[in-house]
Design goal:
341 residues; alpha/beta; 5-stranded parallel beta sheet
Length: 341
């Protein structure tokens, strides 16, 4: 990996002695560094960081008003832990205590006064090379993160498409448009929003609702496509689509499929307890299933099927109102009416 050219690096010198700054500027100038900034006042560091975005800071340890350790804490607070900005501490104090304090505060290296010109350039170049490598690593990591994000989005989109296709697979047997499942999902999410359910739950309902009739896959065509009313034994067999669908979906580790299992099993339960397959009553019925039950009922009434003609919207709405407290949760009926009218 290539190192940034010396004349591209930006260097900030902070030292309360003008003589020390001038000396370092001459050393750096002869080595080809042209972007050199300096101050004798450590209180100006934050503004200089903002204005110049240096690649390295040469920081004096002992300064009046604010010493190098205090200044370094400000620098690290400003730049954060993820941004590798090397700090080269300038000091004549060679005691172990001074070095320990500097290292604990986040100093990357030390330059001992009086300066050796060769050592100054070597230490600066080493730290600049490390910074360049760090920036390249960050860039590479950012690229990988973006690829992961894009791949995650693709997988999520694929999951949504699979769920949609899975739901439509059963519907194509008695709804050649395959749109019933999508309409039920949309209406269910609208009702859920009107009820004030949290966003995550609304999203899951929208995705899970289209799978409500997946169990129809297991129902024979002579029953599913029968143009007239079912005989009692035929109706009993038709009821099994709720349990067949729940069996298909059970055991999933995905929230959306777990909710779909609940909806599939219980969307034909009724508020008054006369539904199937378990005869659940009132709030014993999961709210997701109560919502889908109404959305499914309304959509089925307003669209033609092999066994019935389509009702008008007003006729279907009147029937929903009539079934409030019997087939449907009155609160969900109210939310539906506010949404549809």
């Amino acid at each position: 990996m290539a190192q940034a050219a010396p004349n591209q690096a930006k260097i900030l010198i902070v030292d309360d002695q003008e003589y020390n700054i001038s000396l370092l500027e001459r050393i750096l100038g002869r080595a080809g560094f042209v972007h050199v900034f300096s101050t004798v006042d450590p209180h100006q560091i934050l503004q200089l960081l903002k204005d110049n975005d240096p690649d390295i800071i040469l920081l004096d340890l002992h300064m009046p008003g604010m010493d190098g350790i205090e200044a370094l804490k400000l620098i690290r607070e400003q730049t954060g832990q993820d941004n590798y900005l090397p700090v080269l501490m300038l000091t004549a104090d060679v005691t172990p205590k001074a070095r320990q304090e500097g290292l604990q505060a986040g100093v990357n290296d030390f330059l001992t006064k009086p300066y050796d010109r060769t050592e100054v350039i070597l230490r600066i170049n080493n730290l600049l090379k490390t910074r360049e490598l760090h920036k390249q690593l960050q860039s590479h990591n950012a690229l990988l993160e973006e690829r992961v994000r894009q791949r995650t989005e693709q997988l999520q989109q694929a999951q949504l498409e699979i769920l949609e296709l899975f739901g439509r697979a059963a519907e194509y047997r008695d709804d050649m448009t395959g749109m019933h499942t999508q309409r039920v999902g949309q209406m269910s999410s609208r009702i859920a929003i009107r009820l004030g359910l949290p966003e995550w739950q609304v999203e899951l309902i929208a995705r899970a609702a289209p799978l409500h009739d997946i169990g129809k896959i297991g129902i024979p065509d002579h029953i599913l496509l029968k143009p007239g009313r079912f005989e009692q034994d035929e109706f009993e067999q038709m009821k099994q689509h709720t349990l067949i669908g729940a069996s298909i979906l059970e055991g999933s580790s995905f929230d959306v499929l777990r909710m779909a299992e609940v909806i599939t099993r219980s969307h034909h339960e009724k508020w008054d307890g006369t539904g199937y397959p378990q005869g659940l009553k009132g709030e014993e019925i999961p709210i997701e299933a109560r919502i889908v039950a109404l959305a499914d009922f309304y959509d089925a009434l307003t669209h033609e099927r092999p066994y019935k003609k389509a009702w008008t919207s007003l006729e279907a709405i009147a029937e929903v109102e009539a079934q409030s407290g019997h087939h449907f949760d009155p609160q969900i009926v109210e939310a539906f009416l506010h949404e549809i009218l």
